[in-house]
Amino acid sequence: MPAGPPDSAGAVRQVQAPRRRFSTPVTSPTGTQAVDRAARLLTEVVHAPGSVTFTELAAATGLAKSTTSRLLLALERNGLVRRDDDGRFRPGEVFVRYAWRGGAEAGLVAVARPFMDRLGKATGETVNLGVASRGMVEQIAQVDSQYVIGATNWLGRLVPLHCAALGKVLLAHGAAELPAGRLEACTARSITSRSALAAELSEVRRRGYAVTDGELEPGLVAVAAPVYRDGAAVVAALSVSAPATRLPAAMFAAVAVQCAAEAGALSAVLGHRPADAPNTGAGHRRQKEGAA
Asked: How far, in Å, CA of 2 to CA of 291, rounded?
């Protein structure tokens, strides 16, 4: 320690040398260590082939359960991870919105599955996700009905846009175009007049959902609602279908509310932020179960 000048009594004072300040890495849980740990958790979620449990994440990263819980909550608050109905973790809305910026549809089925499962449990009926394909509507995902009667596997099947509730939604919102020529009559109830179909599509936009009543197959009833991505673009439609004996006209409005709610929740994950909630007023009549 260096000597200082003498004081008034002649004694030499010891002067404290100034301490050098060294930059040391931040290792507190609120610093870069927390970021590194959160990044490890996020990497595990993103790279997992499916959803992953809390226990699996804690084991894979070697983090304490309390730390894992705290960091997962922070990631979830910021949209980087999300939980399904079973409490398992998947990539969050931020990743989904980024993937959809270029219009990619590869992950749509995986993203939609929890919402379809919830709708299937609530209604007990067949739930389908449909997109426009080659001038028709194609079912790209399905949740089967809890019932045996009327059950049909519609996956991969192409059906006329104007005869399906899914197709009517896509047409009404400009997500599909009718092919040229005469409108096919799948049943005696199919709409074959373009002017009548235009009026029906206007009604679909007004109330927020579409209905088919024996227009694709006799006795087949379906209710469908639009699925949006960021902005106002409709990219798919979500439907509930059942035999007319199980889904009479008196139930259309209630099922439409359920369908629109899950379609809206899925749309939110895809980045859609509507100014107003969709209108799901009273519905039409009745039908059977399947893709329509």
From this structure: 89
Structure tokens at 172: 């009404």
How long a stretch of residues is the chain? Answer: 292
Residue 84 burial (CB count, 10 A): 15
- Quick check: 142 and 128 in contact, CB under 8 A? yes
* Six-digit token string for 259: 């369908």
Q: How far is residue 197's CA from residue 160's CA, in Å, rounded to a whole number?
A: 13
The domains of the chain, with CATH numbers, are: 32-91 (1.10.10.10), 105-269 (3.30.450.40)
> If you search the block for the tokens 């490890």, which residue do you land on?
40
The residue among 291, 289, 198 whose CA lies nearest residue 247 is 289
262: its two tokens: 């899950």
CA dist 47 and 245 (Å) reads: 45
Question: Residue 208 is which amino acid?
Answer: G
Question: Bigger pLDDT: 150 or 19?
Answer: 150
The percentage of the chain sitting over the pLDDT mark of 70, rounded to a whole number, equals: 78
Whether residue 32 is predicted with pLDDT greater than 80 in this model: the reply is yes
What HEC string does the chain produce? CCEEEECCCCCEEECCCCCCCCCCCCCCCCCHHHHHHHHHHHHHHHHCCCCECHHHHHHHHCCCHHHHHHHHHHHHHCCCEEECCCCCEEECHHHHHHHHCCCCCCCHHHHHHHHHHHHHHHHCCEEEEEEEECCEEEEEEEECCCCCCCCCCCECCEECHHHCHHHHHHHHCCCCCCCCCCCCCCCCCCCCCHHHHHHHHHHHHHHCCEEEECCCCCCEEEEEEEEECCCCCEEEEEEEEEECCCCCHHHHHHHHHHHHHHHHHHHHHCCCCCCCCCCCCCCCCCCCCCCC
The predicted model scores a pTM of 0.67
- Among residues 106, 216, 107, the alpha carbon closest in space to that of 167 is found at 216
